[in-house]
UniProtKB/TrEMBL annotation:
This is Alpha-1,6-mannosyl-glycoprotein 2-beta-N-acetylglucosaminyltransferase. Pfam families: MGAT2. It comes from Rehmannia glutinosa (Chinese foxglove). SUPFAM superfamilies: Nucleotide-diphospho-sugar transferases. Its EC number is 2.4.1.143. It comes from the Eukaryota. Pathway: Protein modification; protein glycosylation. It is found in: Golgi apparatus membrane. The chain crosses the membrane at residues 12-33. InterPro entries: GlcNAc_II, Nucleotide-diphossugar_trans. Its main location: Golgi.
Length: 431
């Protein structure tokens, strides 16, 4: 009798011990989940799948009152409403292919270039399977008309409602009391914070970085069509010529990336050196991420988004240099992208973003292409059996570069940070 009692007591004590261990384990796990270190570790090892998100996302636009965004004029408000319109051409292409790669084309005001880019896209094999989103930096009628004539796929237009181009007499455009050039703020009693070189903001210049950051936040977190998208999104610009095999090559790269280059963050259509057409080797290439035809998934976007302060406070008006010099280095290791040995996209523009707006003759090449598409560029030319050559210690902008300036005004930095908070994400079933 006593022996059986002791056995029962031992069993009860062992059971209680396991309960205590389980409780402490749950508490420890909760504490880990609350730390950024744990989140970064998860991100590092889940570049190919978005395991932290479910398929159902519920995104809501934060109120302007809470964020204190610039007061909008009627045109800005109308464009913001227009962003919620469904894609066009749904009657022609009612469904999207499974595992499609969304394409985002971000544009400024270079219609002579946009026509060439759109024409190249119309010849891309597989383009009808996906959604094309065109993001405008403000509103320009000729640019709008070009996009409205697209018939080769589903297409959705979005317009940056806080583009400096839409605000004539107030920030983020030019305010009446704004400092100019190298004005002394105290002596002139004007508004503005100079950059590290003593220059005050130029609305046309800062719009580059504002548009890119607004677009990224909106495409990933603010549109019904993309908020649940767990795959990759391709980003191109209006002066990028896309080869017919680009979409199929990109599908192959994304499929091969987990096996061939699991530490790669992205896939690129073109080399990081915009003058290069590729090595022509029988090998895949891993190198620093370029700014022509780059694509990544939501997990990578979340890593970028967590670096909003680094992005928004770095004194350089170029979004890509900001990424190379401060955001990517903050990830704690090399940021590689995977591409083929032959380019599938070309940067053809020689006219700067703010040259030639309203003066077409200012573009020295007049938007004329000086190359031909060869037969090898019309079919997929990436082989699954290839190995990967890794470029290490490449030249280019690195951590420690101070920036070219143009982004010193505290108002621009604050607006940039507010863009990062525009959309509040909540996951179904998670508090």
């Amino acid at each position: 009798m006593a022996a059986s009692y002791r056995k029962a007591r031992v069993k009860n004590m062992a059971f209680c011990r396991w309960i205590l261990i389980g409780v402490f384990g749950v508490v420890f796990l909760v504490l880990l989940l609350r730390t950024n270190t744990f989140i970064d570790l998860i991100s590092r090892y889940s570049l190919e799948t978005d395991e932290t998100l479910g398929s159902n996302h519920n995104y809501t636009l934060s109120s302007e009152k809470n964020l204190k965004l610039p007061k909008q004029n009627e045109f800005s408000i109308s464009l913001e409403k227009r962003n919620q319109m469904p894609p066009r051409n749904l009657d022609l292409y009612p469904t999207l292919a499974k595992n499609h790669i969304i394409i985002v084309l971000y544009v400024h005001n270079r219609p002579q270039y946009l026509r060439l880019a759109v024409d190249s896209l119309s010849r891309v094999v597989g383009i009808s399977e996906t959604l094309l989103i065109v993001s405008h930096d403000g509103y320009f009628e000729e640019m709008n008309k070009i996009v409205e004539n697209i018939r080769f796929c589903q297409v959705k237009q979005i317009f940056a409602p806080f583009s400096p181009h839409l605000f004539v007499n107030s920030f983020p455009g030019v305010s009446r009391n704004d400092c100019k050039d190298k004005d002394d703020t105290a002596k002139k009693k004007c508004d503005g914070t100079p950059d590290q070189y003593g220059n005050h903001r130029s609305p046309k210049i800062v719009s580059l970085k504002h548009h890119w950051w607004w677009m990224m936040n909106t495409v990933w977190d603010g549109l019904k069509e993309t908020s649940g998208h767990l795959g990759h999104i391709l980003f191109i610009e209006e002066d990028h010529f896309i080869y017919p095999n680009a979409y199929r090559n990109l599908q192959l790269l994304i499929e091969l990336k987990p096996k061939k280059c699991p530490h790669c963050y992205a896939a690129n259509l073109a080399p990081s050196d915009v003058k290069s057409r590729g090595e022509g080797w029988e090998s895949l290439i891993a190198e620093r991420m370029g700014n022509v035809g780059y694509t990544f998934n939501r997990t990578v976007w979340q890593k970028i988004h967590r670096k909003a302060r680094e992005f928004c406070t770095f004194d350089d008006y170029n979004w890509d240099i900001t990424m190379w010099a401060t955001v990517y280095p903050s990830f704690g290791g090399p940021v590689y992208t995977l591409r083929g040995p032959r380019t599938s996209a070309v940067h053809f523009g020689k006219c700067g973003l703010h040259q030639g707006q309203g003066e077409r003759s200012a573009c020295i090449d007049n938007g004329v292409l000086n190359f031909e598409v060869e037969d090898v560029d019309k079919v997929p030319n990436i082989k699954s059996g290839w190995g990967v050559y890794v470029y290490k210690d490449q030249a280019g902008y690195q951590a420690g570069f101070r920036g070219w300036g143009g982004w010193g005004d505290i108002r621009d930095r604050q607006l940039c940070l507010k863009f990062a908070k525009m959309y509040e994400a909540s996951e179904a079933g998670i508090v």
